[in-house]
UniProtKB/TrEMBL annotation:
Similarity annotation: Belongs to the class I-like SAM-binding methyltransferase superfamily. MenG/UbiE family.
Gene Ontology terms: biological process: methylation
Protein name: Demethylmenaquinone methyltransferase
Pfam families reported for this sequence: Ubie_methyltran
UniProt catalytic activity: a 2-demethylmenaquinol + S-adenosyl-L-methionine = a menaquinol + S-adenosyl-L-homocysteine + H(+)
InterPro entries from the UniProt entry: SAM-dependent_MTases_sf (IPR029063), UbiE/COQ5_MeTrFase (IPR004033), UbiE/COQ5_MeTrFase_CS (IPR023576)
Organism from which the protein derives: Streptomyces glaucosporus
Amino acid sequence: MTRASLDKQPREVAAMFDKVAARYDLTNDVLSLGQDRVWRRAVTRAVDARPGERVLDLAAGTGTSSVPFASAGAYTVPCDFSLGMLREGKKREPWMPFTAGDATRLPFADDVFDAVTISFGLRNVHDTDAALREMLRVTKPGGRVVICEFSHPTWAPFRTVYTEYLMRALPPLATAVSSNPDAYVYLAESIRAWPDQPALARRLQDAGWTRVAWRNLTGGIVALHRGFAA
């Protein structure tokens, strides 16, 4: 396998992320021109983790996204289906309860978490709607979900430039800094195929989330969606 196809077979996608685990955070920093740090800070504010709360961080990878929630005093569970990512994360943050899990069949009881979040991982799940329902299942009534995902720039000229960057500039950049450049070609293609902001909001509502809203970051390159469990 050179890269996972857009039908997102879980075993292939997991294997792809296993291969890029060691340099994943560095590569993301380079390819996003440092914007990934801005986006993650926005997620931290949106989740608003508090002492004593339980937070589930899906597609947590090496745990970089999970640390701010734990630092705020929340019991934070980083969960990912890539064992390579989890092993790398455990090396860096051995105190965190890294957990292997498939977003469509989460290994947690009902109504456990005050907040569930996933950053840049939902589009890699083979059944998005099942994952949204599972997130709701494990969230307490009144709890919240925060989804940070690549989306569609709202200004047409910028959207054109962005698409050109994804498909032309990203692959050679990935070749220079990543341990598996083909993985980033797949990621660029998956970004282009992902639903726009209103479409993802509708899918959240269809899954049972209430008070769904979103806001754009970096001109819509990324969108933060939020919803609440009834």
